[in-house]
TrEMBL record:
Taxonomic lineage of the native organism: Bacteria, Bacillati, Bacillota, Clostridia, Lachnospirales
Name this protein carries in UniProt: Beta-phosphoglucomutase
Sites where the protein binds Mg(2+): 8, 10, 168-169
Keyword Metal-binding: yes
Biological process according to GO: carbohydrate metabolic process
Gene: pgmB
Organism: Diplocloster agilis
């Protein structure tokens, strides 16, 4: 049976979270709004416009919808300046080896990201060629924790969501994977142990986990 592995992008395959932080921080400083790294971590998996709402909080009503779109565009301008500097060196050999290993084992690979910049990041880092499908912020109307982006990724792979596993570093992403009926694999410390089906300290541990999961399919 064909199986799919769907990867979140920011924080799983590439470490762009710090760029998001620096870009939001620049905007927040200009608006005189408090913003720190721990607040940035709460924005993982959340769309740009929804992130802005969370940053503005009660000050959201000070701005019209058009002004808020401009603020989000301003942040994206700062963020894109960082992305311009990205290159294939921003993805470790280990990540590329793991993606090749999964392909060699017959998995179909997809990206499932809330980011509208995902195609640009995949192109800058030369990761596009590893994936059979990409579902990103340009294809969806509801961001994580809604399962839409992962359901799209499964659909683009031609697989049932039940035959897909998702690797995520965000609580919103784990909730999205579970809501979509996929196996949820949490990476890092964003998610409590009982929220995901499996947890990984880092992507390096994925092959051992996959081997274990395959073994339990055979024996159960
Ligand atoms: C990812 C990141 C979020 C970001 C979202 C939208 O999910 O984890 O922090 O807000 O993408 O990114 P974008 O590149 O479209 O602004
Ligand atoms: Mg992420």
């Amino acid at each position: 049976m064909k199986k799919g592995m769907i990867f979140d992008l920011d924080g799983v395959l590439v470490f762009t979270d710090h760029f998001h932080y620096l870009a939001w921080k620049k905007l927040a400083d200009r608006l005189n709004i408090e913003f720190n790294e721990s607040m940035n971590n709460q924005l993982r998996g959340i769309s740009r416009q929804d992130s802005l709402e969370l940053i503005l909080k009660e000050r959201s009503t000070d701005y019209s919808e058009a002004e808020k779109r401009k603020l989000a565009e301003e942040k994206n301008g700062y963020y894109r300046e960082f992305l311009q500097q990205m290159s294939p060196l921003d993805v470790s050999d280990e990540v590329r080896n793991i993606l090749r290993w999964l392909k060699g084992r017959g998995y179909q690979l997809a990206v499932g990201s809330s980011s509208k910049n995902a195609p640009f990041i995949l192109q800058r880092t030369q990761l596009s060629g590893y994936f059979d499908a990409v579902a990103d912020g340009n294809h969806i109307t509801r961001s994580k924790p809604d399962p839409e982006v992962f359901l799209k990724a499964a659909e683009y792979l031609g697989l049932s969501p039940f035959d897909c596993a998702v690797v995520e570093d965000a609580r919103a992403g784990i909730q999205a994977a579970k809501a979509g009926g996929m196996t949820a694999i949490a990476m890092g410390d964003a998610v409590g142990a009982n929220e995901a089906d499996y947890t990984l300290d880092s992507l390096s541990d994925l092959p051992a986990l996959i081997t274990k999961m395959e073994h339990s399919f055979k024996t159960s």
